[in-house]
Amino acid sequence: MADVTDQTFEAEVMKSTVPVLVDFWAVWCTPCQIQGPIVEDVATTLGDKVKVVKLNVDENPVYAQKFGIMSIPTMMIFKNGAVAKQFIGVTSKDVLVGELTKLM
Amino acid sequence: MIYDVIIIGSGPAGYTAALYTSRAFLKTVVLAGFEPGGQLTTTTEVDNFPGFPEGVLGPKLVTDMKSQVERFGAEIKQEAVTAVEKEDVFTVKTAGTTYQAKTVIVATGASAMYLGLPSEEKLRGKGVSGCATCDGFFFKGKVVVVVGGGDTAMEEATFLTKFSPKVTVIHRRDEFRASAIMLDRARKDPRISFLTNKIIEEILGETEVTGVRIRDTKTNEVIDYPTQGVFLAIGHKPSTGFLNGLVDLDPKGYVKVQRTMSPLDPQTATNVPGLFAAGDCVDPRYRQAIVAAGQGCMAAMDAEKYLESHGS
User: Fold this and answer.
1) In terms of C-beta density within 10 A (0-12 exposed, 13-18 middle, 19 or more buried), how is residue B191 classed?
2) pLDDT tens-digit series, residues A71-95
3) Distance of residue B245 Cα from the nearest chain A Cα, in angstroms
4) ipTM of this model?
5) Closest residue on chain A to B133 (Cα)
6) Among partner residues B95, B134, B207, which is closest to A72 by beta-carbon distance?
């Protein structure tokens, strides 16, 4: 699963032509270690109909702040450069796949 | 395939049970749930688990328990159980799979409670948090409050001083359930102050937390106390909802185990033959990793004995 950074966020997420799921995470966040494999699983299930990326909030403070992230894991789905949906806390594969499928 | 033992939960109770059953050559699967590792994964330093003279990080302790279990061949699945049924054998359902076993050990622990205010729900993730180790980072230079009076509250308050210049512990009584050492550490920290006999009536703010409305339980005086973050540490409730209808629970949701005074009886047995329970899901009193581990061992030995006498 690809990493996005403060430098690549605009091009990879905001300008994407398909819906993008962004997993905001950090190394020291244990629930994030649980979320990581779930998000990978979502990526495998949905293939190239969506984009699934992660952003390390520790190394990339600009976009984490811009979207007001104050709790992780947070997942956001972007469509056409706007936030379409937000999930706070560990979120199951079924829920994420369901929401992404609606936006495809 | 029919397992000898299905263990539901992956904290110290679940992993200790799995260690004993797999070492006894019982075919074991651990269903680890949505929060693998349990409450230890959101703690920091654990100083009261024997065998670690310098202390040990909670996540490290439970990850090592997992590795130890894997050495003896137990399967570990990252799946959360939705239902348990019993006919001849136990059927345990997760979102995608159904497992069968001759015995079940419930070691699902407990999860953090919230206050139950609509304003809290609205501002969760926007200043309201249940996990200081996860979210403290976002409160660099901001003033925060910690709600609660137990060890978790003291630990979170102490941890948050890494980021926050001013941490206020708000507690609804003037006595603390926290252990003396944890309370003392927090009290000695000049960045931590205490407000006691105060109840949170509302969390204030529209798009992010700006304060809390607190009422004094003695004078009934209500004030708005400014803060940018609210960390909740008001206790835990047992994660036993999925057992309803099959297993006897007490009014608070803890699994009822026999706990008879006869040392020859299985202490972790429930009203359902072959189903045993251990750890924080049965224990409203001690709630320690070491106690959960001990009970996990007891449940494993009870299950082993049960299998011997019921033909395994």
Assistant:
1) middle
2) 999 999 999 999 999 999 888 888 8
3) 25
4) 0.80
5) A29
6) B134
